[in-house]
Structure formats: C-alpha cells, structure tokens
Design brief:
Radius of gyration: 16 Å
CATH topology: Rossmann fold
Strand order of the largest sheet: 2-1-3-4-5
Number of domains: 1
Structural class: alpha/beta
Oligomer: single chain
Shape: globular
Largest sheet: 5 strands, parallel
Amino acid sequence: MNAEAVERTVRRMALEILERARGAGVQDGLSFIGIRRGGVHLAERLRAEIGKATRMAAPMGTLDIALYRDDLAQRGVAPVVGPTDIPFALEGRTIVLADDVLYTGRTVRAALDEIVDFGRPRQVWLAVLVDRGGRELPIAADFVGARLAVPENEDVQVRWREAGAPEDGVVVRGRREP
C-alpha cells in the first residue's frame, strides 16, 4: 500500500466505525486506544477522521503491552516498557482498540488483559490496518483495512509519517534472522 492507499483505507475504516457506532447507539461513548507503537498512529488517525465527520473529539488513550506478553520468560531479557496512558474511565464505553498489524492474536490478547486492569468497558472493537492471517488464538478484527496472505517467513511493515517514515506505506519483506 502506498501513502494514498493508506489514507483512503483509514478514511473507509473510520466511516465503518462511525456507521456501526451510530447503529448501536454508542457514538457518544466511543473512545480510542492505540497499542504502542503502530496502533497509536492508526487510532489517532481514525479518531481524527471521525472527529471531522462528527465535530466531536473522542477520548484517546495508549497502551503498552510489554508486561502483559505471554512470552516474557522465553525472551530472557528485561522488556522495554513504554507508557500506558488512558486518561478516561472505561466503564460503559465502547473502545476501539487499534493496532497496525494483526498476526497471531497474542498482542491483542495482552492488550485486552491490560484494558480490564483499567476498568470494564461496555464493549471493545478491534481495528487493524492489516490482517496478515496466521492466528494462534481465536481473535478476529471488527474493522480491517486490508487482508494479506503473508507467508510465515515474511513480515508486514507499516510505515507511518508520525514515526519518522518519509511517507506512509505497507510493505512485505523477508524476515531477518537474528
């Protein structure tokens, strides 16, 4: 995906989220949480697009799942933990949990575990820019920008301007061996 395709895809996803929120009567309680790192950029953009359409500023939070990973013991190194910032109460809200790539489902599982430590939202919708398949857990996204069949030996890289890339984009590359 090039920059134009990413922009178009995010806009479409935002309209799908807004349509579902209006249909479910939860537009006022809609909030966004981005999973660090790439999910934060997607959440911010979805929130901005919905804000343009509704003239409302939905609450926004960020989540770092480093301490909630199920492979901490296997990694053998101390995790680098970034900030988690959820500056609003979760109770009764519809949360749009955003991540850039959905693969095994383990990141989303860790994010859900962390979210419930902060409160009990009414519901959580998962929005991902790319679903690459390869699930190890029974987790599915509610809103998907693109579905790609990517072999296990390749990685999907989402590049965001906000993260220092010259332009937005999605590329598939061979996995680097350590």
